[in-house]
Design brief:
Length: about 475
């Protein structure tokens, strides 16, 4: 039955693959920078996704406003109200950057080409008559190449091709494939907005799931551009703590009459680097995770002082620069891991981190004629999440085992589970109690760089993998 089922899925995927490839190129051609993805009432990526989903038989398409933009939520109902499988892929991208760094100055071409793996984490790209050599890729993607027999593949090129429009196309192709089966549960493809900025789309979608009671017996697969459908089981969270120093303003010609808040901040940042291990050890005592490892921090990600009128993108508007600044602000990017009693101790952990920074500054900087505050920006807070308490737990998890074995079988490659480098939309689903793979997506590279691409073959392989995974997770009898 399994071999016959796989053969049937391959046939259905191949039938609709050309139109899915065309759809992918089409949405790459359209800009959809984060916060500007559009809605179904005007020409946009969101409208194209909506139109594509509406063509799939037996699928009900929901729209959900997130500001002026819209999530597209496509639901394929099963014959029984049992389990639910969710595919999540966002429609927004980061900025394309300097256009001349792309082939023919066009980041949105959607052209086909080739990638060649040269070893030592290095690839070359062929786009029409142009060749780009000595491009470095992430170690995790190089590891996939090392395991493959083939060292060249066809690609689709352009901003968003890998992160994350190929996953949008794959999720809808899988849904289209599954619509030809009498499935026992529900399958949802959620194409969300604003992932690259504040994940507002994912947060809104999570609320939608709660309202409609799609929480129990539910599995979610977050389709971030990943490493050839290698199951990534967790990621660290993000806490942005702001340190603000307060001094006393005076004329720059008489600095002795003031207290320079920028100078005091520079001392704090210096101490953070000088006593880095000491500060880390204090954080380790609060949280130390068997899967996610230990927390990290990066001080000075953003810094501004008195005399700054406003900051827009990379332009700084200054005012009163002949005045000793009486305030200065710096952010500390803390990569959080789970506490010992997660999630019950989350608030305690967040408060303890704040106290660690305050105690450290008081001890090292010894404020006297100046003061400081430490605050957490809760609007940007992203919680850590992972499947299992340790790696053994994760490897024995039903969702993880199925995702791993199916991806290996379809691609004929040996894989292992892993941890995501950055945070994803998974946190907003996992923290609703949904078992969630934090990344499980196609192979490609250069997601936030020039020459972004996805491997063309992964559109077909990905749809087969997702379809088989959904059917295995839903269980029950499958009528074809």
């Amino acid at each position: 039955m399994e071999a016959h089922l796989k053969s049937r899925i391959e046939k259905e995927v191949k039938k609709n693959l050309p139109s899915s490839i065309s759809f992918l190129k089409d949405i790459i051609n359209l800009k959809s920078y984060s916060g500007r993805e559009g809605n179904i009432n005007k020409e946009s990526v969101v409208k194209r996704v909506y139109e594509k989903a509406k063509k799939i038989k037996n699928v009900k398409v929901h729209t959900q406003y997130v500001g002026k933009n819209q999530n597209i939520i496509s639901v394929l109902k099963g014959k029984e109200e049992g389990k639910t499988v969710i595919f999540v892929a966002h429609t927004d991208t980061v900025d394309a950057g300097i256009r001349k760094n792309w082939y023919k100055c066009d980041p949105f071409s959607g052209l086909e080409g080739y990638v060649h793996y040269k070893g030592n984490r290095t690839i070359s790209l062929e786009i029409e008559e142009e060749t780009y050599n000595n491009i470095k890729i992430r170690e995790q993607m190089a590891d996939i190449w090392e395991k493959r027999i083939e060292k060249s593949r066809e690609i689709i090129y352009g901003r968003g091709s890998y992160d994350n429009k190929s996953s949008v196309a794959i999720s809808l192709l899988a849904l289209e494939t599954l619509s030809n089966f009498d499935i026992s549960g529900n399958v949802i493809a959620a194409n969300t907005v604003s992932e690259e900025t504040n994940a507002a789309g994912a947060k809104k979608f999570a609320e939608w799931l709660v309202e409609r009671e799609y929480i129990k017996n539910t599995y979610a697969i977050v389709m971030e551009g990943s490493y050839a459908f290698k199951p990534l089981i967790g990621h660290k969270g993000i806490g942005w703590y702001t340190i603000k120093t307060k001094g006393k303003a005076s004329h720059a010609a008489t600095p002795e009459l003031g207290v320079n808040a920028v100078e005091k901040m520079s001392h704090i940042l210096h101490y953070m680097y000088k006593y880095r291990e000491e500060l880390l050890n204090s954080l380790y005592k609060i949280m130390d995770d068997n899967i996610l490892g230990k927390p990290t921090f990066v001080p000075g990600t953003t810094i501004a002082g008195g005399g700054i009128k406003k900051v827009e993108s990379n332009k700084v508007y200054k005012d009163n620069i002949n005045v000793i600044p009486d305030w200065c602000e710096a952010t500390i990017d803390v990569r959080l891991v789970r506490g010992k009693r997660y999630p019950e101790d989350t608030e305690k952990v967040l408060k303890s981190i704040k106290n660690v920074f305050k105690d450290f500054i008081n001890e090292k900087a010894k404020p006297s004629n100046w003061s400081f505050d430490v605050e957490l920006d809760r609007n940007t807070l992203c919680s850590p999440c992972a499947i299992g308490k340790n790696l053994e737990d994760a490897k024995n998890n039903f969702l993880v085992k199925k995702a791993l074995s199916i991806a290996e079988d379809v691609q004929v490659i040996k894989l292992d589970i892993g941890i995501a480098l950055g945070a994803t939309e998974a946190t907003f689903l996992a923290n609703k109690g949904i078992q969630t793979l934090v990344e499980y997506g196609p192979a490609g590279a250069l997601s936030h760089e020039p020459h972004e691409f996805v491997e063309k073959k992964q559109i077909e392989e990905g749809a087969e993998i997702l379809s088989l995974l959904a059917l295995n997770l839903l269980g029950g009898e499958i009528n074809e």
